[in-house]
Amino acid sequence: MAVMTRWLDPDEQRTWRAYLTASRVLMDNLDRELQRDAGMPHAYYEILVQLSEAPGRQLRMSQLAQAAGSSRSRLSHAVARLEAAGWVRREDCPTDRRGQIALLTDEGFATLAAAAPGHVEGVRRHLFDALSPAQVDQLRRISETLAEHLTGS
Amino acid sequence: MAVMTRWLDPDEQRTWRAYLTASRVLMDNLDRELQRDAGMPHAYYEILVQLSEAPGRQLRMSQLAQAAGSSRSRLSHAVARLEAAGWVRREDCPTDRRGQIALLTDEGFATLAAAAPGHVEGVRRHLFDALSPAQVDQLRRISETLAEHLTGS
DNA sequence: GCGATTTAGTTGAACATTCAACCATCCGGA
DNA sequence: TCCGGATGGTTGAATGTTCAACTAAATCGC
């Protein structure tokens, strides 16, 4: 017997469309600003942030991929570029000869420190300034629920 | 005088991180499923959807770009591919000789009709199934507020 | 009418991402 | 100890996206 599609009801439709538009434009704006001000896309910024917060400003490639929400392949390519830019360096892992350690250089840290204020300002301006405190709270709960739902399954 | 950065407070930090994770994983999942089941990325699916809902299943390139939330350049490249796949056709605009009209072919419509149930099922499974009705309502309001804020400025 | 500006759309190059294939090393068990 | 699978990571090719430059046609101002 054919399984019937559970189509979206009008409310869900509206929600999904609005969500698509909002998230697309939000990320487009942040990406464009970051590219203009710091010379890197948001995904690369995320990599530098994760490294900067790790102990010793270094992480195994796999852990970094996990932390930055990137595939291993994508991270390999990205780190190759970041290394060429002088912002990241790679070292062999002493305990696992397959492993590579990515580590944030001083230059990379300085670049990140220079880019952060503008980026945070952008996040505030584009996102938080538009929402009430209650809405920020709702968005947090929704996002946490969703993140759990999506990564837990 | 130097302008102080308005850093994010801990609640905002948490919200922003959770949002980034949730929206990234959500879109990654939908994109992967659509690529696997329909042979196209989500952005291309959006283009076909917009065309399918337009009167006569056709739109001027600019209007289509606007509707699908795409840059004009991106749309040009995308439509070139969709045309090669036989899903879209281009025609000259009769009232403006600079203009081009993109129109959904029957084959394109059939492909979309075949892909839609699976995709909607994915949206439901990944997004709506995890949220309470109240949360769906909150997400709608937040997204609409945000979309207005971002496109209005 | 006519030059200046704006609008519509395309193009190619540089860059980013995905996918599958691949090599090397590690680990578990007979 | 050695075999088979799992893990860590990279690579190249195909595909998408961005950016700036470009052509052509419409529109504005006079």
UniProtKB/TrEMBL annotation, chains A, B:
InterPro entries: HTH_MarR-typ (IPR000835), MarR/SlyA-like (IPR039422), WH-like_DNA-bd_sf (IPR036388), WH_DNA-bd_sf (IPR036390). Transmembrane segments: none annotated. One of its GO terms (molecular function) is DNA-binding transcription factor activity. One of its GO terms (biological process) is response to stress. Residues 1-148 form the HTH marR-type domain. Gene3D superfamilies: Winged helix-like DNA-binding domain superfamily/Winged helix DNA-binding domain (1.10.10.10). It holds the Pfam family MarR_2. PROSITE patterns: HTH_MARR_2. This is MarR family transcriptional regulator.
